């Protein structure tokens, strides 16, 4: 096993990775920016190094500085966490070229899945259902109008390099499309340096359901069940759970099989997630593949008993998966909510000092938090300050436990989305297990104005 | 004369007006970036932009001055 792992990340996920490394007797190297000098991950790692100024381009995205620290400290592997450099193929290649192990898939695979158009083509070849649409870049508004006409409105305009909902827009008719195309193309160009656009048929009120896979270097691909993440705001997940309360056992099996086919077809290794949109008739369509650990991985851990970070380390170290698909049974029900430093109604960010933090405790309650009382939540990074995960023997029990925990979760000094989370998880539609990705929009949008970046 | 101030801490992402330009009440004059979000800052009153008091890329605190309108 690795002797020393550098964690190229911050916040709760850096702490999460350090925890598993410690348990396995692996030393850890934390990196941090000037803004994070007092962060918990900095204190908890074996060694910590400041790598630059607060803006991510001058610290957490600075590949040269990160590799310098890795060499200086003698780290033998780098865990990228999620976000930041985790799906950056150049970074994965530079880590490998420096003679270190990148804890994730091969850089070629990251690259292939990074283009949504390429990913569509590849999945089609693998026999995985994709949403009706085009597999070629669309040059301009005229071409887009013609394609949309062929597919039939409403359609989704999408940026091939997109993420977080940027460069993506629903259009209901030709007039809307003409208004929207160039703007989204420009946004994609400015955010991702790639303005390549494509179009997919719009699926009304879909569920977002994803399958977690583990793939070792010996060709074994094991699906470890699904997560439903239909509660989203600005196309970002807010509540995630496992198992999905929506799909039938038959659909579950088909989706797990499709995820295995997809991973095998692209030669995937390590932990990855295949995201699907599922319509009201339980037809499912490939959405995208995330070639990293997901924010919501704890719900899978809770229902399977696996430690996904441990599995990532072992697979990256060239070990064979020590179990079969049949060995992994799901038990009980787990739900995660993301605690964001933001206004609960407008979703505007709320940076500031946390003057008091009290985390609810109890059986089946798990926390993954980035902060403690006295910490500053700075404007430089994502607003997520923590995740609350509950486990119950049934979904009903988990929902009740979650509502209780949210009621006694105290964050003072900044605003958080806790009131919104509580409203959501006690809403009759959520309790019935029938919420779709439209839920937050329908329930909250008339009150909101925030634009995602 | 009024001073348009930052509604929260963040980085000045875009300054949308120039000195001497006429602005209307409710017009976006600056876009801040905070926590990976774009936060539009609006002029509360109509007038002429007298002075730009921040530069793109500057880190600013809540209530810092951004634009003077006269």
Automatic annotation (TrEMBL), chain A:
SMART domains membership: Biotin_carb_C
Record carries keyword GTP-binding: no
Entry's EC annotation: 6.3.4.14
Record's keyword terms, sorted: ATP-binding, Biotin, Ligase, Nucleotide-binding
Gene3D superfamilies: ATP-grasp fold, B domain
Alphabetized InterPro entries for the sequence: ATP-grasp, BC-like_N, Biotin_carboxylase_complex, Biotin_carboxylation_dom, Biotin_COase_C, CPAse_ATP-bd, PreATP-grasp_dom_sf, Rudment_hybrid_motif
Pfam family, one: Biotin_carb_N
Span of domain Biotin carboxylation: 1-445
The UniProt record lists the keyword Iron-sulfur: no
Domain of life: Bacteria
Span of domain ATP-grasp: 120-317
The protein's name: biotin carboxylase
Biological source species: Solibacillus merdavium
From TrEMBL, chain B:
InterPro entries, per database record: Biotin_Carboxyl_Carrier/Decarb (IPR050709), Biotin_lipoyl (IPR000089), Single_hybrid_motif (IPR011053)
Residues annotated as domain Lipoyl-binding: 1-70
Keywords (A to Z) from UniProt: Biotin
UniProt-listed CDD domains: biotinyl_domain
Pfam families xrefs: Biotin_lipoyl (PF00364)
Protein name: Acetyl-CoA carboxylase biotin carboxyl carrier protein subunit
Species: Solibacillus merdavium
